[in-house]
Amino acid sequence: MVDPFEALQKIKDTGYDTLEISIREGWPTSPDVFDVDQQRKLAKLSESLGFESPIFFGAINVCALPDDQDAMLEDAAAKFRFARELHYDDTPTLVTTTPGRIVGDWESGKEVIRDAFLRLVDVAVDHDVVIAIEAHAGTVFEFPEKAMWMMEQTRHPNLKLDLDVSHFYVEGADVEASVDLCAAESVMVHVKDGEMIDGVHRFSLTGDGNLDLEGFMRALKRNKIEHLPINVEVSVHQSAEPEYDPWGAAKFSLDALVKAEKAIG
User: Fold this and answer.
1) Are the beta carbons of 61 and 96 closer than 8 angstroms?
2) Percent of the residues in the chain that have a pLDDT greater than 90, as a whole number
3) 212: closest CA among 250, 259, 157?
4) Which residue segments constitute the domains of the chain, with CATH numbers given?
5) 3-class SS at 248?
C-alpha cells in the first residue's frame, strides 16, 4: 500500500543496499498495472539512489495444469520483460519464484516440477533472466535436499536457487547445514524468522524468533556467498495485520542482521 517511488527512498534511508520488487498480481508493481514508462522511471530512481539492479519476486505458477500452461508462460514472459526494463548494471537479472501449485506428493510430482521449470527456463533464456527457485514450507518442496535434487536434475545456468532458509528452518532443518548444502547453487538469499505451531508454519520478522542469525551469517561467510543480495522478507503473516508498520518492520529486521554480523566479526 506504499507508493513504489516513495518506498525506494525510504528503503535507502533505512539503510538497505539492495532491493527486491514484487511483481506478483495484486501489487502496485505488477506488470498489468505498472506500465513501461513507470518501470523505466523506477529504474532511473533506483540507479540514482545507488542500488544495484533490483531482484524480482515473480510468483509464477510454474506447475500450472496443462490447460493453464500457455497462460503461465505468457505471464512469465511479461514479468521477465519487466525485470529487464529495470536492469541497468552487470549483475544477473534475477526473478525468484516457488513452483506454484503442486499436485501430488514429492515422489510422484518431483519430475513434473523439474519438467515445468525446464519449460520455463527456455523463456528465461530468451529474456536473459536467471530464475531463482524458492522451496516453500508447507508444500512437498520444502527441504534443502529437494532443492539440490532439482539443481542436479536440471543443470542449467539460468536455473538456480533462492536460498530462503526460513522455509527449511520451520520444517526442522538446521540453518547452517542448509546453507552449506545449497550455497554453491544459490544466487540470492531470503531471510525471515518463524516456527511450526501444531503442524502449521507461522513466519515472523527477521530477529523476532529463534532462528540463529549469527550462525546463518557465519554459514554465508564460510561458503563465501555473503556478497549475494541478502533480502529481508516480510510474510503476509505480518503485512496483512491491521497494525502492520512497514518501516518499523524494515528497521527491526535490518538491526537484527547488523547485530548478528557485528557479533561474528
Assistant:
1) no
2) 95
3) 259
4) 4-264 (3.20.20.150)
5) helix
Could you give the angle at the alpha carbon of 27 between the alpha carbons of 23 and 33, nearest 5°?
80
Place of cell 533462492: 162
Concatenating the DSSP letter of every residue in 202-226 gives EEE-TTSSS--HHHHHHHHHHTT-T
Amino acid at 73: L
Q: Supply the DSSP string of 73-134, one letter for each residue.
A: HHHHHHHHHHHHHT--SSS--EEEE---S--S-HHHHHHHHHHHHHHHHHHHHHTT-EEEE-
* Cβ count near 220 (within 10 Å): 24
Amino acid letter for position 2: V
Measured distance CA(116)–CA(98) in Å, rounded: 12
Per-residue pLDDT reduced to its tens digit, 81-101: 999 999 999 999 999 999 998
Distances (CA, A) of 108 to 68, 100, 103, 104, 171: 20, 16, 9, 6, 21
pLDDT single digits (tens) 71-80: 999 999 999 9
171's CB contacts (< 8 A; 6+ apart) are 137, 142, 143, 196, 201
Q: How far apart are CA 52 and CA 17, in angstroms?
A: 8
Are the CB atoms for 79 and 60 separated by under 8 Å?
Answer: yes
**200-204 and 193-197 strand pairing:** antiparallel
Question: Residues, the chain, total?
Answer: 265
Q: pTM, whole model, 2 decimals? A: 0.95
Give the Cα separation of 252 and 168 in Å (integer). Answer: 22
Q: How confident is the model over 3-58, as pLDDT tens digits?
A: 999 999 999 999 999 999 999 999 999 999 999 999 999 999 999 999 999 999 99
